[in-house]
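Now produce a polypeptide, keeping tokens residue-aligned:
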Amino acid sequence: MEKKPWGIFVPLKIQKIIYPKEKIDIEGPYILATLSRRVSVVLTYYLLNRIKISANSVSFFSFFVSFSCMFFFINSNYLCGSLLACFWSVLDNIDGELARLQKSSSSFGVFLERLNTNIFYVALFPSLSIGLYRDELVSFELMILTFFSISFFIILRSFFDANFPYKKSINMNSNLKLIIACQFKSSFDYRKKSKMGSFIFYLWRNIFTQCGMHEILLVLLSFNPAFSIIFLPKMLLFFSFGYLFINVGILLSLILHNILSK
């Protein structure tokens, strides 16, 4: 890495600590994460680190932001909720950046970060569904489906955020098997071998996971109240069924890979 990523206004030796190459390689195709790093690394280095703010303090503050996001969505203030969701993504960067810069990484910090992410998932679409239901814009059945889809996704996503569970089957002699392996967050080396697997991974991750596109879409659709009434219910419907299909896909992928590995 001879040059800094565009817009990273910190010394190169500091950037290599705050935003190392492995992070750049993984996050490059993530839309919101790529944009928010241009803000977070500057805040981390020039402000928060210098006033001795700890990574865990940022994580605890992120909890407050998530609950505030829930409050605004439930009370039909969709624009404030959406802006807070984007702000949360910046904080999600900062806690890790501070931990690397201050050399304060810990198992407790990792636990806080995972808990923070789970709370954020609950804060986003389920609370949005409550607000839209209270405004009589979506049905009770869709609100329940949203809660079910997100809750199940939170449980199952640990499979995709963990290491690839079949490390012993390194010989990927099947394209389908390789594409399945690419869908795990830690499977960066596999994604180098399969353009299709990499494309599918970043497509669904950009749409359905944090720091991709859905926070930006929420902001765009919330600026105009007339747009909110028309498009937010449609967006909720799309994501509720999308998460449901992802849940089914995760289960089928694990079953299918088990079969192909025998």
Summary: The domain at 12-260 is CATH 1.20.120.1760 (Four Helix Bundle (Hemerythrin (Met), subunit A)). The two ends are 40 Å apart (CA to CA).
